[in-house]
Amino acid sequence: MTDAIKSFFEIDERQTTIRTEVVGGVTTFVTMAYIVAVNPGMLSQALGQDMFGELLFATCVGSAVATLIMALGANYPFALAPGMGLNAMFTYTVVIGMGVRWDLALGVVLAAGLIFTLLSVLRLREALINAVPTSLKHATAAGIGLFIAFIGLKNAGIVSAHEATLVTLGSVRAGEAGLAIVGLLGTGVLVARGVRGSILIGTAAVTVLAMGTGVAPPPSGLVAMPAWPERMFGAALTHLPTAFSIALIELVFVFLFVDLFDTMGTLVGLSQQSGMLDDRGHLPRANRALLADSLGTVAGSLLGTSPVTTYIESASGITEGARTGLASVVVALLFLAALFFAPLVESVPLYATAPALVIVGVLMMAAVQRIDWGDATDALPAFLTLLVMPLTFSIANGVAAGIVVYPVVKRLSGRGQDVHPLLDVLAVLFIARYLFVQ
Fold it and tell me: Is the pTM of this model over 0.85?
């Protein structure tokens, strides 16, 4: 059995051991386990708290399936789960903001996943990636960081609505806000010290403090049988044809673009860290890795969750020496084990996940360093992209702003050669959408 595992995952060829891969897999899971509580908690704001158990099932099983595809198909130590930012877009932009029914929104996610899969199979993903300028890719990542950090502050009550100024400082003396601030500071210190699982530890600590001080009730139990997603399973497939309507096709492509950019950036970063790039700087079997990502989104949508993507937290396992898909198998098994702790996960209050959202936002903001702020034709579209997202509470609006402004500014500045023709097509489609469909 051991020899078969070594042979399948090329353990010896990659100069690693089964023990190292197991430790790497456990480390990766600990650093990204916060998604088990954060994703169902976020999505349940749009679908209803009574759907939490089904959303937990979709989160854990969707993550496990996608990670296993990555492990067995591409043999990389990369783990997947519902993407932060993408889940915010699903919840706050599409369902709550636009009033799209959750089952129809899942159809939109399925459509995006199927197109991503088709692009991966036909090897056309480069055309889309190359069409969107690097500055807008970085701005999209940073804008999503601002957006989810804003959501975290809002969920904690630190930021609240105001008639005159639109937003204002909430009551920081309230128990929820105070605990979130303590959690944010504590998590920040843990991250600064390089403690693995910092975000998970911070979320757990705030939850324990909330229960210990009586701000939140204790869990109803520790373990329970998983809740089968009877209301959610397959709902996306039912509404797939409607997702391609004029009113919704824009959302399909926004989900597609954000997922595509996020995946490519993460894969490049992880492969650089693990030393897996070849002599030309390319990732071997990159198409298989992208296919695992797209199939993960398809599987996740059928189960009932927002788009699944590769997690940069996989870097923690790589740091521990993980180099093969065996580490990803360990992550997948741990996601399945987490299914049985639904009562414990459900007891995590919304404000306890606020530090996680803010910290992830901070990490995503690092992308602004790679934007050429000295070039106004890059800076203006990039700035509007990352500014419009939190101010309009919509990732889609931010992406659209950048894609529309970029070709206009470039061409009117005499630098039309910097604009890919496909970007012109996308800009026209976005303009038409806002003029005639909104």
Answer: no
